[in-house]
Amino acid sequence: MTGEFRKLWIGQSISAVGSQVTLIALPLTAAFSLGSTPQEMGFLVAAQWLPYPVFGLFAGAWADRLRRKPILIATDIGRALVLATIPVAALAGTLTIGHVLVAAFAATSLTVLFRAAYSPFIPVLVPRDALVDANAKLALSESVARVAGPSLGGVLVQLVTAPITILIDAVSFVISAVALVLVRATESPPPRAARRAIWAEMGEGMRVVIGNAFIRSVTIIGSIFNLAITIGDAVLILYFTRELGLDGAMI
User: What is the CATH number of the domain that holds 15?
Assistant: First the structure.
């Protein structure tokens, strides 16, 4: 494992925990702090997932035209600024569900762009024969974050309220951006002569998905699964908080 990859790994491990904290703190902000209705909770879930199908293809094609490191740094800083507006507005007494919806949509849109540049950036830092090990380490960090992040988020919600807890994620994005700034990487975008129209590249991507039976099946199954999870997420927090009377730590 190279020293440059280690910097990326540390930054992403911290950021992954922060993102999982927000995964629990954001809906609890809507439920606890704003008293949101089931319809508003549904809008919040949609705001967190809609950018993937809307911007996914475009983000991938656009990221392939540029150096990935500046994209990663810019999207980390952007997400930090967007999420920081929630605790600031809460402290000022001006936080609304509309603000939360816009922030959730903007942060997720930046995440889509980040992920489009993230995977292709890893081979820049590690040799081909070390890619499996590098991806395994990143996957391990994600798994640990999925367990530790929501638990930490629930406890922090109890201690400092849900909107303030989101500040943890904003700080984690700043740490990730700093780690990326410290990474020394040599990369160059494809020459302009080799580029086609971005819509043509997006169309080619769609044709590959539709034309390959395996990819098409995985995409359909994944879409159905995500739809089912999304429907449940829209009401689950309200059920836990209002029907079962659970607090943030218990959730």
Answer: 1.20.1250.20
